[in-house]
């Protein structure tokens, strides 16, 4: 499996970058996001996932990290799709339409035609977490802090073609993947608030 290495990295540098870094890999060519997961009382862990969202090529790598029933998920900032960071599964919040919270809810936990979509409140009852299909490709990342080398291991291109997931196409596309590389600059300039 191809291993891509980047020099000059540390856990502190990742923390300064909002616990994430975006990379354009070559051979196979794809955009990925490395996430630093820090939990109190536990060692820091690196996770790596395709940057663009499988749904509409949104900047999933820039999404909020949310924990739902002990599942760490990225929430796409465009349409609020949830993806399990561990295995790339889509996480759905199924709302019981007979409950107060479910009144008027349709589709992926959202009342239409609001934008952005509103996330269902798990604590209110009438909401069930459903594991969907694997839609986002995950990769292996590790950091040798003594040398400052961050390594990202991806599957062989032939293996990815043999077992495709929905994120493969946008992750290998310059237009789709590049948005995560630029979103930090957009946010820093306040252009996301226009």
UniProtKB/TrEMBL annotation:
Transmembrane segments: none annotated. Residues 41-107 form the Rieske domain. The keyword Ligase does not apply. Keywords: 2Fe-2S, Iron, Iron-sulfur, Metal-binding. The keyword Hydrolase does not apply. It holds the Pfam family Rieske_4. GO terms for molecular function: 2 iron, 2 sulfur cluster binding; metal ion binding. PROSITE patterns: RIESKE. It comes from the Eukaryota. This is Rieske domain-containing protein. It comes from Leishmania naiffi.
């Amino acid at each position: 499996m191809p291993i891509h290495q980047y020099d000059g990295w540390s856990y502190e540098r990742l923390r300064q970058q909002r616990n994430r870094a975006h990379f354009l890999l070559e051979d196979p060519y794809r955009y990925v996001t490395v996430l630093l997961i820090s939990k109190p009382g536990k060692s820091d862990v690196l996770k790596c996932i395709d940057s663009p969202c499988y749904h509409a090529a949104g900047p999933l790598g820039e999404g909020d990290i949310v924990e739902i029933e002990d599942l760490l998920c990225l929430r796409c900032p465009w349409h609020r799709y949830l993806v399990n960071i561990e295995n790339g599964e889509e996480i759905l919040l199924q709302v019981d339409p007979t409950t107060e919270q479910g009144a008027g809810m349709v589709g992926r936990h959202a009342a239409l035609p609001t934008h952005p979509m509103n996330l269902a409140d798990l604590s209110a009852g009438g909401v069930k977490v459903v594991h969907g299909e694997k839609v986002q490709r995950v990769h292996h990342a590790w950091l040798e802090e003594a040398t400052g080398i961050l390594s990202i291991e991806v599957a062989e291109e032939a293996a990815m073609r043999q077992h495709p997931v929905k994120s493969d196409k946008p992750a290998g596309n310059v237009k789709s993947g590049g948005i995560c590389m630029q979103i930090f600059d957009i946010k820093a300039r306040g252009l996301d608030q226009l």
